[in-house]
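User: Reviewer 2 asked us to show a designed sequence for the structure in our supplementary figure. I'm pasting the structure tokens here. Could you produce the per-position amino acids so we can include them in the response letter?
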């Protein structure tokens, strides 16, 4: 058994879904690990990770609009230290999650045909987000 880790930095452009599948897949391929378990962890409380459809261009916008309707800005949150999008971003992060566990089989993530790994940016301003990758396997 071996384990490896790295940190990816993802630049966001305000509220968006940024696909990270390719960068993660390259790192796994370079690791030489063929079979194992990948943990993907977002080190932020106002951004999150998700696995979702990466083929239809409309999906990210639909997901973001649904999150905005479900957790609107200006809903009289007590916490607004960093602006009106701060607390909604924390709630959206709580709903979507900050970590993923993905099997690695044959040196590749065992994702479904239309699945991709996305960083969900919940803040309005551009950010630099850190994602920790940890791979355990052989």
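Assistant: Here is a per-position design you can include in the supplement:
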């Amino acid at each position: 058994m071996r384990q490896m880790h790295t940190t990816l930095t993802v630049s966001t452009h305000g509220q968006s879904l940024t696909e990270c599948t390719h960068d993660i897949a390259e790192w796994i391929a370079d690791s030489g690990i063929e079979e194992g378990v990948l943990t993907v962890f977002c080190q932020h409380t106002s951004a999150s990770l998700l696995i979702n459809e990466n083929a239809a261009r409309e999906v990210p916008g639909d997901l973001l609009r649904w999150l905005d309707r479900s957790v609107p800005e200006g809903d009289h949150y007590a916490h607004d230290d960093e602006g009106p999008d701060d607390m909604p971003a924390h709630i959206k992060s709580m709903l979507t999650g900050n970590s993923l566990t993905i099997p690695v089989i044959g040196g590749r993530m065992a994702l479904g045909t239309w699945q991709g790994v996305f960083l969900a940016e919940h803040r309005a301003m551009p950010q630099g987000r850190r994602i920790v990758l940890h791979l355990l396997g052989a």
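For the response letter, you might also mention the following. The beta strands are 2-11, 16-19, 36-42, 47-53, 99-105, 108-109, 115-121, 128-137. The first strand starts at residue 2 and ends at 11.
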